[in-house]
Design brief:
One of its GO terms (cellular component) is cytosol. By secondary structure, the chain is α+β, with helices and mostly antiparallel strands. Helices cover 34% and strands 26% of the residues. It has one domain (12-156): GAF domain (Beta-Lactamase). Strand 5 (115-123) and strand 6 (126-135) form a beta hairpin. The structure holds methionine sulfoxide (SME).
Length: 160
């Protein structure tokens, strides 16, 4: 049995240290990308408060295709360059969106979502996937969240 749980009330940098340690342990030595993405999506959903969707879109033949996630059913295919996820994948840069309604071209999968953080996963200089987090709270994500998820993306680079 795995029993990774966040300690309550931790400052964000420490919460992300714990999250990274748990993700390292869960994916260590496992070569199946789907299994690793599924466990990490579950971990993100369990560790991060005020998050209504956590998961992956994978780059498949130059578009984004839904991967393992926790949350409500979501859009399956996103063209590169479109929405928050497509922008992160096309630019290779983290997208920290404080108010999704102010982001041109935002793709609404869950009407409850108010803010979003999308971080590309890069392997050998190519974006292979993005990690997407949605929150029902505006301005839920900040630079600490971006740094934490970017560290997770580096860890997962050759594990998904
Ligand atoms: N909002 C995203 C689409 C994916 S869902 O949030 C799960 C976007 O604009 O790319």
């Amino acid at each position: 049995m795995y029993d990774f749980r966040p300690a309550s009330g931790l400052p964000k940098p420490e919460l992300y240290e714990d999250l990274l340690a748990a993700a390292t342990g869960l994916t260590e030595g496992e070569s199946d990308a789907v299994a690793n993405m599924a466990n990490v999506a579950a971990l993100l959903f369990e560790f991060l408060p005020q998050v209504n969707w956590a998961g992956f879109y994978r780059v498949v033949e130059n578009e984004l295709v839904l991967g393992p996630f926790a949350g409500r059913p979501a859009c399956i295919r996103i063209p590169m360059g479109q929405g928050v996820c497509g922008t992160a994948a096309a630019s290779g840069e983290t997208q920290l969106v404080e108010d999704v309604h102010a982001f041109p071209g935002h793709i609404a999968c869950d009407g409850a979502t108010a803010s979003e953080l999308v971080v590309p996963v890069v392997r050998d200089g190519q974006v292979t996937a993005v990690i997407d987090l949605d929150s029902p709270e505006a301005t839920r994500f900040d630079a600490d969240d971006a740094r934490g998820i970017e560290a997770l993306a580096r860890l997962l680079s050759d594990r998904i």
